[in-house]
Amino acid sequence: MSKKLVILGAQWGDEGKGKIVDLLSERFDISVRYQGGSNAGHTVVINGVKYIMHLLPTGILHPHNIGVIAQGMVVDLKALQDEIADIEAKGNPIFNKLYISDRAHVVMPYHKLLDKLLERKNGVGTTLRGIGPAYMFKFMRKGIRVVDLFDSTIFEKKLAENIEFVKDVAEKVFGERFEIDYRYIEEEVLKPFEKLKERVIDTAKFLRENTKSVIFEGAQGTLLDIDMGTYPYVTSSNSSALGLANGTGLSPKYFRDAQIYGVAKAYLTRVGGGPFPTELHGEEAERLREKGGEYGATTGRPRRVGWLDLVALKHAVDVNGLDGIILTKLDVLDGYSEIKVCVAYEYNGKIYEEFPASLEVLENCKPIYETLPGWEGSTQGITDISQLPTNARKYLEFIENYIGVPIVMLSTGPQRHEYLFLKEIV
Ligand code: GDP
Ligand code: IMO
Ligand code: MG
To answer: Which residue of 17, 83, 275, 393 is surrounded by the most CB atoms within 10 Å?
Structure first.
């Protein structure tokens, strides 16, 4: 029997996927990242040592676990080389158990430049890691894939075409002069590739042939999905379960028997622009941000914070076909006398119980809240259900009743051991 588990974000990213995948991947042989790139920042704390995973699947930190960077990712080779070096410097050799897809697209230095220029006009609040432009080149059919780096003639031809295009865009659209500095190509692409190239394979084939026990780690979250999220305030990949087949190169049939769990915070955050119906402001926001340590793992930006939005969470359950929710950061709500949860939106006299496609509605709706009592005592670090305060249990039940799937696991602190299962899942 093969064992396939998918863990992905059920909100706007930063739900605590890294911590959860670290825990669960111990029981798996292979871990896979299949979309996004170094815009992700997945935090793991092991014996007080903090790792922030950007491109590598978190499971690779376990000595027995093989890591796969699959074809749906856009890979910044220099960032990848640095990430590997950082982990190895902490005494964990991983290089020889990593595979990189030959079909993955390469994030080029000029993608980062375009990201910056586009931000001036769009204000999405991207991570400036070149993600949108790298996917843009992919879909324009001008992208440079990892496989292209093996053939200098193909690479140079594509590079020259790319540069001409970037020059035109920079000058004609943004009024900026663009001169390529080949030292960047050398330092950020070619040299790292020389180091990494022995790890490049057809990862889809590898995954088809090694199905025994595989964990798939989503990056970002469902509300940032290019199709199902709060478009255009989204990332440029399918960060919901919709990205699994194209991101891995595996048939949708492969995932028939996969378990899919969504990670969600007990409240809600988002980084960057875009609608956020339950967002808090002022002192209330400050309190939650500080308690939750809500500062970006990739960019250090303060995260916007708000109450749990069940309309949005139910959307994530439906879009992904979730088998359950893994709820993190419950401990951050300790000490609140009242906790609000959004159960519907109101816009122009109409009540919305389903997550709308319209940005206009999302930006201008009024959240309708249920107010639940907070709990006495602390959930920080608890590992046993008997330690869960009654009102915390009621909070969980309220969520489950609304979304229609169980909360299968709770995270009660950033450290590896701070969790409890409510249902056995793997
Ligand atoms: P990811 O992108 O989904 O992996 O999440 P991030 O790593 O960007 O952000 C989650 C943050 O919350 C990190 O700083 C984690 O160490 C921390 N964290 C994860 N789970 C918990 C939890 O249950 N309680 C608390 N207090 N912190 C947590
Ligand atoms: P993890 O995997 C939170 C957000 C950015 C911006 C939008 C587009 O750590 O949960 P991009 O650079 O992808 O073009 O930015 O998406 N964003 C994230 N927010 N967590 C992430 O990753 C994110 N990756 C991108 O803030 O709003
Ligand atoms: Mg993160």
So the answer is: 17
